[in-house]
Amino acid sequence: MKFVVDQQVEDIELPENLKLNTFLQEFHSDCPHPECSFGYYGFAFGQSPFPVPSAIQKALIENADKGAYAPVQGIPELREAISKYNKHYFDLDIAPERIYVGPGTKELIFNLLEILHGTVILPTPAWLGYLPQIRFLKKNYHMLPARANGKISAQDLKKLSLRLHDRQKILILNNPHNPTGVVYDRLDLEEIADVCKEQGITVISDEIYAQTTFNFSKFVSMAKIYPEGTFVTNGLSKSHAAGGYRLGYVIFPQHALELRRQFKKILATEYTAVSTPIQHAAVAGFKISSEIEEYFQTTRNIHQLIAEYTCHALNQIDGVKAVKPEGTFYLLADFNSFATELQKLRIDTSQKLSEALIVHPYHTAIVGGDSLVLERNDYRARIAYVDYNGKDVYEHYQNKTPKTNSEKIEFVEMYAPKVACGIKMIERFFDDVKRKAACEEFGKISVNA
Ligand SMILES: Cc1ncc(COP(=O)(O)O)c(C=O)c1O
After folding, report:
1. Which domains, and CATH codes, for the chain?
2. Ligand 1 binding pocket includes 127 (Cβ within 6 Å)
3. Which of 21, 45, 105 to mutate to test the pocket of ligand 1 (most atoms within 8 A of CB)?
4. For a FRET experiment, which of 69, 193, 261, 382 has its CA 20 to 30 Å from that of 304?
5. Is the Cβ atom of 327 under 6 angstroms away from ligand 1?
6. 21 alpha carbon to ligand 1 midpoint, in Å?
7. The whole model's pTM is what?
8. Whose C-alpha lies nearest to ligand 1, atom 14?
9. Segments of 220-349 assigned E as strands
10. Residue 239: which of 216, 273, 271, 205 has the closest Cα?
11. Is the CB of 46 under 6 A from ligand 1?
12. How far apart are CA 59 and CA 57, in angstroms?
């Protein structure tokens, strides 16, 4: 029997994160070097390392008997809890009717792109999940490169928008931002919102990292600034370290009743509803409680501590530039100053740079620029600084919170040694690159030779 795959599916590629996942799994079990049993320094995966808060785990167990289908939009208790959560943390007044629960924000963003007609404006660098969706849906799209500070500017947005002649334009704004860790402040958002109002641009504001903003008081939701034109997506995946639960939500803008009706149709057609026990567990996650509050504070403090260490250590490497993140658990490292040497060694794309770093003896996994919607020969890469045992680190941090600079360094080196050693390995790699590129005239050798 020969099966014929639909052309629409043939035309898309496996999303980069899943490609990378498969590659690393294969590499892990099969390093070709005979004496090597070491896995890799994992700077590639965007997953919070902490345990799921125990209140959520307990609620999941208690609700394991809930076998009935849930309402399409989400169970009322959960939408009520999400509404209160948004008031408490983001000062948003959102009626539960404006909230739709789905199996992760990735799916909800896809659903939004399905129902919203129009050209998509995608700021770059970008999270690797958006572009495959845009391509799959065959939407028109335009990139909007960020400025040197990692943020898009309102002027650039306006300039681009004036060139687009579509009835509707959709800006995907990710704040705090994956992969750079930058956070748009109120003024940035006001300037962007002014252009959106003037140009009739709808915003999908992906705020999945909101709770990881290191200085949390600095986080402002776009729904606060531009309530009539913003869809906010958020969920359990990053703030509650529960990506595997697959639970996200979208807040619809004010006065979008007809659109909400259409959206419900899409959800009912595609997945009926999110798993009922998971929704009950999520109620515990979004409820305002001292346990969850302490969890948010501790995890964001640890992310900040390791962010500062990673950023500083990378900047100590001659030729490497890293922009200090203000949220998430990523930063963008710029290796472009090694471009000449890398090209001499035929490492002429960021993909090849990731491949050269993962093999023996470096064993270091990063996400290269072409997976972040950058040019193929742009040697910037995303560094996720989460390769440590989150449960142990959380406990040690609570038992003895490091205060001074040297205590902080000691803490990271003691409890997140793979982060510290992985950075050293990046340094060793570029030392070898420089040395081998200098030797290039003596013969064609590659950095892994
Ligand atoms: C920017 C961004 N948006 C959305 C997602 C997906 O989140 P979810 O697990 O809710 O689908 C991720 C996950 O890595 C992300 O980094």
Report:
1. 7-46+292-442 (3.90.1150.10), 55-287 (3.40.640.10)
2. yes
3. 105
4. 193
5. no
6. 15
7. 0.94
8. 46
9. 230-235, 248-251, 321-322, 330-334
10. 216
11. yes
12. 6
What are 353's two structure tokens?
A: 């740079």
Per-residue pLDDT of the chain (449 residues; tens, 9 = 90+): 888 888 877 777 766 656 666 767 666 655 667 667 677 899 998 899 999 999 999 999 999 999 999 999 999 999 999 999 999 999 999 999 999 999 999 999 999 999 999 999 999 999 989 999 999 999 999 999 999 999 999 999 999 999 998 889 999 999 999 999 999 999 999 999 999 999 999 999 999 999 999 999 999 999 999 999 999 999 999 999 999 999 999 999 989 999 999 999 999 999 999 999 999 999 999 999 999 999 999 999 999 999 999 999 999 999 999 999 999 999 999 999 999 999 999 999 998 999 999 988 999 999 988 789 999 999 999 999 999 999 999 999 999 999 999 999 999 999 999 999 999 999 999 999 999 998 875 555 555 55
Three-class SS of residue 49?
A: coil
Q: Which of 334, 407, 33 is nearest to 179 (CA)?
A: 334
Distance 12 CA to ligand 1 centre (A): 19
Tokens matching residue 7: 């052309």
